[in-house]
Structures are given as structure tokens and as C-alpha cells.
Design goal:
- The protein is of the alpha+beta class.
- The chain folds into four domains: 129 residues, no CATH class; 159 residues; 52 residues, SH3 type barrels, CATH 2.30.30.60; 127 residues, Alpha-Beta Plaits.
- It has 20 helices and 14 strands.
- A five-stranded antiparallel sheet has the order 10-9-8-7-11.
- Helix 9 runs antiparallel to helix 10, helix 11 runs antiparallel to helix 12 and helix 16 crosses helix 18.
- It starts with 8 loop residues before the first helix and ends with a helix.
């Protein structure tokens, strides 16, 4: 079975797709605005500054302040009086510096709803972003919902937080890394950020990748040093593990170099998307390894089929969960999307009716124990061996060695004959003895064959029979009916061969001969009756009659019980041939 999850190009394609979707989603929105949960009604006035929700208020404040428009940035602050409004631009500049360097909190956790979150504060009109921490000073960062004339409810940075900004700003320092930049890198800015920080940010990418790879190598070395007899089998998990470590380390380095909060928010969204993809990559690789190990340790066909179906369902669940996580990180409302799936579920079910039918059919086949991996089945007139029970179809191999696939929905509706579930095989054939045989010879052969069937340890004694069914032309027709006690066809073929060998020896020992089919019959040297053996068979039958031990119509119950299992199978092997002896000649 091919394992597509091991394709190294697959995660890279997922990254490219997610990056494209992220770019499209950001371009389609106004700069700095988060996607609202619902569209405002026509009667609700729209705030031109984008302060309808806590998250949009913070993001727009950062956007405007980073462009140097502190007069507009002051509109995002709660300023109670004219004096405070005059110093509002200066307060906005200082608050921006504090948020870039001293804020402990995440803008992504803020609510995108105009009502905010009621769980983070006892007051529904207050939203908590985090804390401004400068040395020993720890000031909570609050947003408050107020009402402005001709606009309605808007979210602003609370006066409780704003009034602490001057004191915190005096105690705050620039990022430590800025102190080591030369003047040319510290005094030249790009998008309001010193050039030195851009260079430091770019350098953190290869550094994080190298450290992640080194940590993985160190873990491998420590593991091998502790357990020398157990090999380190992380070849398929190494790449996603190293990338996960590199992404986490890179995020920490971005915070340490002092990247502005506005850029950090969107960049961390990008890192979160990469992290979600790498975690899914790791999960699928780990699931592949767990599945291979479980299949190797499991010997039952039933358990292998359940493992295969569960493995495929878990892979689908990982992909779906990762897709929902990526959409949530990008700012989409997954609750609304899931609710929309409920409404559009009917349309999806109608469009994908056959796919859903096959999916449910695969689950039904495994849950009902209809067939498992390795079973020999008769499906639609074809003898096949089940290779894999998938979500959409069941793969099998025909007796000719070709691959064939059956839709699961079709298998549920059609009849399936599972040949691997049988515990016995039937031998049913009619043998013909030559009419030149005497009646005593025929009786002798029938009795001896019946005795052999009762004695055979691999033949069901209760139902076995060997009886003459009629005289046709120049032959006595005798029916052989016997169940061979095995569930494997190869064993059945060998046991059937052994039974026919024994019947042939019995016929030869009685001096009888087989009937030759055809319209004309004439004796040949090989078909001539052995008079001595025929006379011997007559004497044995006569002794049965004299002792009243005739096996017709059948042996007595005591005799059958005595015969049970007296012929062992497989028979005891003969002594090995000598060096110069031909084993085939000896067997003949």
C-alpha cells in the first residue's frame, strides 16, 4: 500500500496554498481591520475609525500610530476632559511605544464582536487586552465601550490605562538589541522600524532553523547514548519536529528583537498558520508509524480492518481540524462556517450522495464483520482476496493477479460470499468402477473406502459417505461425499489428494479397475482383471457374511467409534533416501 503522507512536497504545497489564501484574505479587507462577525444593519451608523469591536479598535490604533498620525490615534483613547484631549497625541505616541515593548497580551484573543467578551471581566463594557509591565510596575490594559454622538457604541483604551502611560514611559527603555546597532542601522527607518531590526528579524529565520535541527540531533545523540540496543527511528518525524521547534524559537526571537506590535500581530498569524500545518504534518507522520506498528503486531484480519478504517478516519479528522484552525487564525468565524455547514448539509449530501454512500458503506462493512483484509470472497462472480478496506472503495486482488476495486456502497447492497469464514471443504464427486468387476469386488472397495473415510482424522465422520448410486452403461457409479475439516484451501487440496491416493490403492488391492468412458469399451492389458486379487476380495466379503459383520448398509456404531482418527494426517514421512537412491523411483 502506498503511503502518500510521506511525500515531502505535500507540506510545502499546503504552506503555499495557505499563504495565498492569507494574502487574499488580508487584501480583501480594509487595512488593519479585522473581519467582523456580522454585517452592520442599514440603520446602524458606521464608525469611520473602525472602533466597533475591541480587536478592530486596537488594530486600527496601531495602524494609524505607526503611520505617525498621532492626532487621529488619539481618537482611540478615552480622554475625559479638554486638557487631556490636548495632550492626546503625545499620549498616543507614548502608548504605542509601550505596546511595542512592554505589552504582555495577545491582540488575537480580543473579541471581534461589538458586544465584546463577557467572560474576561465582570463589567460587560470592559475588555482586557493584557498588562503593561515595566520593571516593577504592572498596569492592566483595559478597553472600555462608550457611546459617541452620531456614531453609537465604540471601543476605546480606558482612561484608567491611559493615565498611567506617562509614568510607565519614563521608566521604559528601548529594546536591548537597539543599543548594539551602529548609527547607520539605528537612524535609518523602513516602515517606521529601524533597519537594524529588519536585519535582525531576517537573521533569526536561518538561526531558528539551525537551532531546531541541532536540538533534534542532540535528542538523537542522547537517546542512542542511553539506549544503545534500540535504534533511533525518527527519520519520518524529524523534519516536522525540527520545523515546529524552529517556528517556536523564531517567534520568541521576534519578540526579543522588539518588532512593533502591529507587524507582530500579522506576522504571528502567519507563524501560527505554519505551526498548525507542521503539527498536522507531524500528526499524520506519527499516525502512519503507529498504523504500521499496529498492523505488524496485529495478526487478526478483523483487527487489521478496524485499524485501517480508523487510520483513514483519523487522517481525515486531522486535515479537517487543521483547515478549521487555519481559518480561525486567519480571522474567519468558524462558528458561523460550521453553522452554515448545517444549513448547506442537504445540498452537500445531494451533491456528494455517492461519496457519502461509499463512506457509510465502508464503515458498515467493517462494523458488521462482513469482510476483512486477507479474506477470500466471491463478489459479483469473481474470486478475490481483500487487500484494503478504504473510505470510498474496497481494493482486492483476483485469482489472475490483477487489482480490482469495488465501491463500498455497491458491496453493502450486493451479496458477498466470504470463503475465508468456512471451516470445512466439500468433496463431492462420482467415481466409476468397471462393470467387469464382480459384485464382491465392488462391495469390498466400497467398504474399505468407507472405513478409510471414518478413520481419517481430517474428514468429518458424521456426514462422510461412499455409496453406489447406480449402474450406467458399463460402470458402477459410486458417490463420494466428504467434508474436509480445514479452513485453508491449500490444506484442503493436499488432504483431497491424500484421500484419492488412498481410494486408488484400495481399488488396486481389490484387483478392480476403473470404468473407461466412451461409447465403445474393450479391455487392454492394463485393464484386465487380476484373478488372484479378485478371488481374495471375494474371500474377504464371504468372511464378512459368515461372521455377520457385513459393512452394508454401514459399519456398526462400535466399529465407527473404533475407527475414528486412526489414520493420521499428514502421514508419517518415510526414511530419507540414501545418497545413490532415486527418491522418485522409490516412491513409485
Amino acid at each position: 500500500m502506498k503511503n502518500h503522507s510521506r511525500n515531502p512536497c505535500l507540506p510545502m504545497w499546503l504552506v503555499v496554498v495557505c499563504l495565498c489564501v492569507t494574502s487574499v484574505a488580508q487584501i480583501s479587507l480594509p487595512p488593519g481591520l479585522a473581519a467582523p462577525d456580522s454585517q452592520p444593519t442599514a440603520s446602524t451608523p458606521k464608525d469611520p475609525f473602525g472602533r466597533q469591536s475591541p480587536q478592530s479598535a486596537v488594530l486600527n490604533f496601531l495602524r494609524v500610530a505607526h503611520h505617525g498620525d498621532y492626532v487621529v490615534a488619539a481618537r482611540y483613547l478615552e480622554l475625559p476632559g479638554p486638557k487631556e484631549k490636548r495632550i492626546g497625541p503625545e499620549l498616543a505616541r507614548k502608548l504605542l511605544n509601550l505596546m511595542d515593548t512592554s505589552l504582555l497580551g495577545s491582540v488575537a484573543t480580543l473579541s471581534t464582536s461589538p458586544e465584546g467578551l463577557s467572560s474576561d471581566s465582570s463589567d460587560p463594557d470592559i475588555e482586557v487586552l493584557g498588562r503593561l509591565v515595566v520593571h516593577d510596575n504592572d498596569v492592566p490594559f483595559h478597553l472600555v465601550r462608550t457611546t459617541e454622538k452620531d456614531i453609537g457604541p465604540v471601543w476605546l483604551v480606558s482612561w484608567q490605562t491611559v493615565q498611567q502611560v506617562p509614568q510607565l514611559y519614563e521608566s521604559a527603555r528601548a529594546p536591548i538589541l537597539d543599543q548594539y546597532f551602529p548609527a547607520v542601522l539605528a537612524n535609518n527607518f523602513l516602515f517606521g522600524i529601524p533597519a537594524g531590526r529588519w536585519i535582525a528579524w531576517l537573521l533569526t529565520i536561518p538561526i531558528a532553523l539551525a537551532v531546531g535541527w541541532l536540538l533534534l540531533r542532540l535528542a538523537r545523540w542522547l537517546y542512542q547514548a542511553k539506549k544503545r540496543d534500540v535504534p533511533f527511528q525518527w527519520s519520518d518525524l524529524g523534519k516536522p519536529t525540527a520545523l515546529i521547534l524552529a517556528i517556536l524559537l523564531h517567534g520568541l526571537l521576534v519578540i526579543l528583537i522588539g518588532m512593533p506590535l502591529f507587524y507582530r500581530v500579522y506576522y504571528f498569524r502567519f507563524l501560527a498558520v505554519l505551526l498548525a500545518i507542521c503539527v498536522a504534518w507531524f500528526g499524520i507522520r506519527f499516525l502512519d508509524r503507529l498504523h504500521r506498528s499496529s498492523v505488524f503486531q496485529s495478526r487478526g484480519r478483523e483487527s487489521q480492518s478496524f485499524l485501517q478504517l480508523g487510520y483513514q478516519l483519523l487522517k481525515v479528522a486531522i486535515v479537517v481540524a487543521t483547515a478549521l484552525a487555519v481559518l480561525a487564525i486567519m480571522g474567519f468565524n468558524t462558528k458561523t462556517m460550521l453553522a452554515g455547514l448545517g444549513i448547506g448539509g442537504i445540498a452537500v449530501a445531494l451533491a456528494a450522495q455517492k461519496t457519502l454512500e461509499n463512506l457509510l458503506g465502508g464503515i458498515t462493512l467493517v462494523m458488521d464483520n462482513t469482510l476483512f483484509i486477507g479474506d477470500d470472497c466471491l463478489i459479483s462472480g469473481r474470486y478475490v482476496t481483500i487487500q484494503n478496506v478504504g473510505l470510498r472503495s474496497t481494493a482486492a486482488m483476483t485469482r489472475e493477479g490483477t487489482d480490482i476495486s469495488f465501491p463500498n456502497g455497491m458491496l453493502v447492497q450486493n451479496s458477498i460470499e466470504n470463503l475465508s469464514r468456512r471451516n470445512r471443504f466439500l468433496i463431492l464427486t462420482t467415481l466409476g468402477l468397471s462393470s467387469r468387476c464382480s459384485l464382491e469386488q465392488v462391495q469390498y472397495v466400497i467398504a474399505r473406502v468407507r472405513e478409510m473415510l471414518y478413520s481419517h482424522s481430517r474428514v468429518e465422520q458424521r456426514t462422510a459417505r461412499f455409496r453406489m448410486t447406480g449402474v450406467q452403461g458399463l460402470a458402477y457409479n459410486v458417490e463420494l461425499f466428504a467434508y474436509v475439516l480445514t479452513g485453508n484451501y491449500a490444506d484442503f487440496a493436499a488432504i483431497q489428494e491424500d484421500i484419492f491416493f488412498r481410494i486408488t490403492r484400495i481399488v488396486e488391492s481389490a484387483g478392480a479397475s476403473w470404468a473407461i468412458p466412451g461409447q465403445l469399451s474393450f479391455p487392454t492389458p492394463n485393464q484386465l482383471i487380476d484373478e488372484d486379487k479378485a478371488a481374495s476380495a471375494q474371500r474377504v466379503v464371504q468372511e464378512w457374511q459368515d461372521k455377520r459383520e457385513s459393512p452394508f448398509p454401514d459399519f456398526s456404531d462400535d466399529r465407527i467409534a473404533h475407527l475414528r482418527g486412526s489414520i493420521s494426517y499428514p502421514p508419517h514421512s518415510s526414511d530419507p533416501p540414501t545418497k545413490n537412491e532415486n527418491p522418485f523411483k522409490k516412491a513409485v
